[in-house]
Amino acid sequence: MRLASTAHTSRPWRIHEIAGDFRLEDVWALPTPGGPDDLPHLVEQIAGGAGKAPSPVYRALFAVRWQLGRLFGWDKDDGGLGGRVQTLRDRLPADLRDSPRGPDVRSAPFTSVYQLHDEWAAEIANRTVHAVMHIGWVQDGTTGTYRGQMAVLVKPNGPFGAVYMLGIKPFRYVGVYPALLRAMGRQWQATADRRNSMA
Known about the structure:
five-stranded antiparallel β-sheet; alpha+beta
């Protein structure tokens, strides 16, 4: 379920001090109910490729995106982290720089920035945008359980990046996020027994 921006901005996340020049694009409640210490399980699931094949529409949209990226050179190394932009790890205060970084995402080109008890941030950059996927672990006000919350922060690369983000918005809302969240929820439920046995 999509949430109001304040679901992210009202919380004292550390990402605010690191990515203050990024625009908050979306905030989503994740279908991942759990206990107060379950964020590492969600991070492991996402980094390992949560919902590897959520739907044919999802797969088709990403296949088209990666094909366009190859055709127009959007994803070349010199347009990404360490090329066009510096990693957000360069902005980390000492306490975050010295804490565990967290895992990189194996199924997509997201690089982990930091991981704490209740939040994890990973970044991606190319010639269109520098973006952050922020996963927070929050208490659900209606049930008292905890769940994941995903915020997407972006810094488009000039006018082209802004037009690109506007152009892909309907596809994200119709074909990407619904399929991704359904797949994430299914995988979370499928691994419930393993998580509970580790508690």
